[in-house]
Amino acid sequence: MKKRWMISTMVAALMLTAGTGVYAGAKLQEVKAYLNSSIQLKYNGTPVQPRDEKGNAVLPLTYNGTTYLPVRAVADIVGVAVSYNPETSTVELGEKAEGVAIAKGFENMYYTKDPKETTYQGKDYKEAYFDNASGKRSSNFMLYPKGKYQKLVLQVAAVGEDIDNFAIEDSEKNVKLTTEKVAVSDGLKTIEVDITGVNELYIYADVLNNGAMFVPLTTSYYK
């Protein structure tokens, strides 16, 4: 609740840091503002330094008696995903109203569009990750949310044999976000994890000799 309050009260006075290409055709008004190094920020009582996407320190701006803070830097500090939609000139904070399917840009040797492999329990998901190789093995793939989203909603099914160890990991920080058991009897299991600020995800499972792992890519999504 505290995060939501902070963001909602700041939005009116925040500026999005973006490349010059973002501003093509935008309605801009030139003003005279000042970088204000005297302003210090604290979050939950702890001093913090706003930084841009490259890790460089950024300063607040003061204009006409009002101080403006860089929205991306503040969102990173309070743990809220932020992105910019150039088509609608919209800054998007927190969860997106509509999910973005992980199918976009997905690459893996077990990626398939074959209806024989994308169909699970009578429904064709059109695109899927389906590892039906032989032998006891680690089944894995990468996802690249690039810090743009708040949550990952992933669907997964165990086929033939239960999957005792299914995990989602922040690959940059080498931190497990969740570890699950996926049973055949679960059907298509939905797993939701917080991915705020996460750039790369490593998804892996221990699959038994007679088992397979099915992940529908069109109904698994970022928010």
TrEMBL record:
Domain called Copper amine oxidase-like N-terminal: residue spans: 58-103
Secretion signal, residue range per the UniProt entry: 1-24
Keywords in alphabetical order: Signal
Pfam families, per the entry: Cu_amine_oxidN1 (PF07833)
Record's protein name: Copper amine oxidase-like N-terminal domain-containing protein
Organism lineage: Bacteria, Bacillati, Bacillota, Bacilli, Bacillales
